[in-house]
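Second attempt. The first submission of D-alanyl-D-alanine dipeptidase had a stray character pasted in from the spreadsheet, which I only caught after the job came back as garbage. Lesson logged: always re-copy from the clean sequence file. Corrected sequence (186 aa) follows.
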Amino acid sequence: MLVEITEAGHGVVLALAYATADNITGRPIYGRAGCYLHTEAEAKLRRAVALAAPLGYRLKILDAFRPLEAQWALWHALPDPDFVSDPRSGARPHCRGAAIDLTLIDGSGAELDMGTGFDAATPLSWHGSLGVSVEAQRNRHLLLGIMSAAGWDFYEKEWWHYQLFQPRRLPILSDSVLRPGLMKQP
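This time the job returned cleanly.
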């Protein structure tokens, strides 16, 4: 059900924010940096990679499958349903392997300007924000076009978040589905 996403196998760059302290919690949530997606999402990722390549861009993945345990850690750090799904709600596409957080990088490996950083809990992060530069708006539209053409849905309040359509049809998964798991061990 979950497929491991690797740099060599998928032509992406992995920079999994929740395996580092550079995230909204200020500490690593994952004990190891592993990237996984549901098989359907993995196929759409491959399509997005193929669409970005002729334009001179690559995808940099910031998060993908997120165990339910990690969702709780994020919710405790930022209990704002505009930016973090409440683990008690039915909307947890990351916990189903059906969502991905990413950005675009150019041929030199530099991230395109998106106007805010990843996980910036502000209305400036919304796809339609006019409060960011014209260049950032263009870059967001470019990412949106690539991901939409590859078959992904988007979340309007996070320029970095894409998901399968109707993700609730897939089960919510905990860290126990992976061997070894992603979460830090006590």
